[in-house]
Design a protein that fits this description.
Elements (H helix, E strand, L loop, with lengths): L4 E2 L6 E2 L5 E4 L5 E4 L2 H9 L11 H7 L1
Antiparallel strand pairs: 1-2, 3-4
The structure holds zinc ion.
């Protein structure tokens, strides 16, 4: 069974069977819709609120 999850980074809904799951060393589970989101979160440590292509941006600045 697959729970409906949304991308930890951009907030986009992840279609079951797609996306990536990332488990941090502290046990936190992160879900990403694409490797792009994973890269931005893990490698670049970017703030989703500052990125235009992220869903969360619109919510914050509305
Ligand atoms: Zn995403």
């Amino acid at each position: 069974m697959f729970r409906a999850v949304s991308c930890t980074f951009c907030g986009k809904n992840i279609v079951p069977g797609t996306g990536l799951m990332y488990v941090k060393n502290d046990g936190t589970i992160l879900y990403f819709c694409s490797s792009k989101c994973k890269k931005n979160m893990i490698k670049l440590r970017r703030d989703p609120a500052k990125l235009k292509w992220c869903k969360k941006t619109r919510k914050v600045y509305k």
